[in-house]
């Protein structure tokens, strides 16, 4: 079957994903031009929040690129892109605080983050092999291969879904920390919300695409079994 009814929803979800990526870049660029009242750089904000939470051992490093900011749980390092590391804007401090939020989650063994870390080795394997099993199963009409592919793909989908509370929680922590430490004023919260909400939308879109694709594969699998009966 070259076309499946679910493809319409998947196409719309891809459209949402593209719009989300455009949105996050546009929002970041807009608020990168608005200086935060604290006049601190993203790197300085990250360092101060880490230290105030007892994470003196967690370094803040510069990473190449734009919007490449992330927290590395293996080396326990906060890595910030140049516009965030050196920036003194609402966008810079928002992203920096968000990544520090992940470091604090790690320190406090936040449940969703712990589960995500434990799933990573399995997902890293399953996401690589699942497409080949599914493709081979569909081409050879082998239900067993399709079923195994669906199981492995389900792990990757679960990983995407579990990422959502991790990201939303990190953003929530970021807002509270920025206010509590006095790095932003109440009238700057709107900008922080805009930046972090735009970033969160990219994760929502990615999870939605994965869930819809999984539903499609499951529907095709059961449809094929019914036809054989």
Computed structural class? mainly alpha
Order of adjacent strands in the largest pleated sheet: 1-3-2
Q: Look at the structure and give the mean pLDDT.
A: 93
Total helical segments: 7
Q: Helix content range of the residues, please?
A: over 70%
What is the number of strand segments?
A: 3
In angstroms, what is the radius of gyration? Answer: 21 Å
- Residue ranges: pLDDT <50 for 5 or more in a row? none
Residue fraction in strands: 5-15%
The major β-sheet equals: 3 strands, mixed
What is the global morphology? elongated
Distance between the termini: 18 Å
- Secondary-structure element order, N to C: HHEEEHHHHH
Write the layout of secondary structure elements.
Elements: H1 6-31, H2 42-52, E1 60-63, E2 70-72, E3 77-81, H3 82-85, H4 90-107, H5 111-140, H6 143-180, H7 189-228
Parallel strand pairs: 1-3
Antiparallel strand pairs: 2-3
Helix pairs in contact: 1-7, 2-4, 4-6, 4-7, 5-6, 6-7
């Amino acid at each position: 079957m070259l076309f499946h009814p679910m493809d319409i929803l998947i196409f719309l979800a891809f459209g949402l994903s593209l719009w989300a990526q455009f949105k996050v870049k546009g929002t970041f660029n807009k608020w990168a031009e608005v200086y935060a009242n604290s006049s601190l750089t993203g790197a300085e904000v990250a360092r101060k929040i880490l230290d105030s939470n007892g994470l003196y051992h967690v370094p803040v490093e510069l990473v190449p690129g734009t919007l490449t900011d992330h927290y590395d749980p293996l080396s326990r390092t906060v890595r910030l892109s140049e516009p965030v590391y050196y920036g003194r804007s609402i966008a810079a401090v928002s992203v920096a605080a968000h990544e520090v939020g992940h470091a604090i989650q790690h320190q406090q063994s936040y449940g969703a983050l712990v589960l995500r870390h434990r799933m990573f080795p399995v997902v890293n394997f399953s996401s690589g092999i699942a497409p080949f099993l599914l493709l081979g199963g569909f081409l050879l009409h082998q239900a067993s291969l399709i079923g195994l592919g669906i199981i492995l793909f389900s792990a990757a989908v679960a990983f995407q879904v579990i990422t959502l509370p991790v990201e939303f929680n990190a953003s929530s922590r970021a807002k509270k920390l920025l206010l509590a430490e006095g790095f932003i004023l109440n009238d700057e919260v709107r900008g922080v919300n805009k930046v972090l909400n735009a970033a969160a939308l990219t994760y929502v879109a990615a999870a939605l695409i994965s869930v819809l694709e999984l539903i499609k594969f499951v529907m095709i699998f059961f449809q094929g079994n019914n036809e054989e009966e």
